[in-house]
Write a structure and sequence with these properties.
about 300 residues, alpha+beta, globular
């Protein structure tokens, strides 16, 4: 059941889509839903969103379908795929008893990614649409400041946790923690609240998972940040929650540039220095340094 074009503006606002993109999305939705070939492609894409594919090649079929779309739909079609998938996602989460407010806040990440796409490209579209498949499949939830993704321990991380005394083996349920932007500062109190919400949420709505730990894979866990930020900064205090799972030897310099400045291809010499984090990222790169993805964990005990 596709949303009617007349109902689309309110639906887009519920998904936190920027106001400036709504008129164009509505106009193009009318065209898409009146074309039988595009409607068929849209239906196939929605089926791929919900296809059970395990942990590997999750979006392989969807990749193929989207690349087969006409060039003029390349940016916009992923938006419409998620709009078409929305009724099924809402129904699945209602059936599980998940509060409508959790569903709404989680799926509003679509609007955030549309805003990120516009900031970088100047037109509507979805930045990192593969990421949003998790939200619509019920694998990831926004709980307060943080996002938590249902996951399983891998072969590299499980032995580290087992050595620390956890009942951990490859395939044991865990949670991957993600830090979305545009959600305010990463204060210790906000993180504490998110973790409290997560303990209650997963115990109630996914009781069979019983995750043993929270994992995070992010450049925000790069210890180099401690050289540039004060000890009481939100980011440093966030890092202190985690034990090291492993270290990466491969630089990931574009990661902080993308997440801090919105475009991984910005020239390093021209990166702004308006905030302490901007200065840290840019100054370190300009001095010839590199940034790395940090891998951390801490135990997760549902209450």
């Amino acid at each position: 059941m596709l949303p009617d074009a007349d109902d689309l503006p309110e639906l887009l606002l519920d998904l936190a889509v920027p106001h400036e993109d709504i008129n164009e999305l509505v106009a193009r939705w009318r065209g898409v839903t009146q074309d039988p070939d595009t409607l068929g492609l849209l239906a196939d894409c929605v089926e791929e969103v919900f296809r059970e594919s395990g942990d590997t090649d999750r979006t392989a079929g969807l990749d193929t379908l989207l690349t087969s779309a006409p060039a003029e739909l390349a940016d916009i079609l992923p938006v419409f795929v998620f709009l078409a998938a929305l009724p099924r996602t809402r129904a699945d989460q209602r059936a599980r008893g998940i509060p409508a407010e959790v569903t709404r806040r989680t799926l509003a990440d679509l609007g955030r990614h549309i805003a990120v796409h516009r900031r970088r490209h100047g037109r509507p579209g979805v930045q990192a649409w593969r990421w949003l498949v998790r939200h619509f499949r019920g694998e990831l939830y926004q709980l307060g400041r943080l996002q938590f993704e249902r996951a399983r321990l891998g072969r590299r991380t499980a032995p580290v946790l087992a050595a620390a005394g956890l009942d951990a083996a490859p395939g044991t349920p865990c949670l991957d923690l993600h830090i979305p932007d545009f959600h305010g500062p990463l204060t210790p109190s906000a993180c504490d609240r998110s973790l409290a919400l997560a303990r209650e949420f997963f115990a109630r709505y996914h009781p069979a998972d019983r995750p043993v730990a929270v994992l995070c894979h992010s450049w925000l866990l790069d210890p180099t940040l401690r050289r540039y930020l004060p000890a009481d900064s939100n980011i440093v205090r966030f890092q202190e929650r985690f034990r090291i799972a492993r270290e990466d030897g491969e630089p990931a310099d574009t990661e902080p540039v993308q997440f801090v400045f919105g475009d991984p291809d910005l020239p390093v010499a021209e990166l702004p220095r308006r905030t302490s984090v901007e200065r840290a990222v840019g100054d370190h790169l300009r001095a010839g340094g590199h940034w790395y993805i940090g891998h951390g964990w801490f135990p997760f005990q549902p209450e």
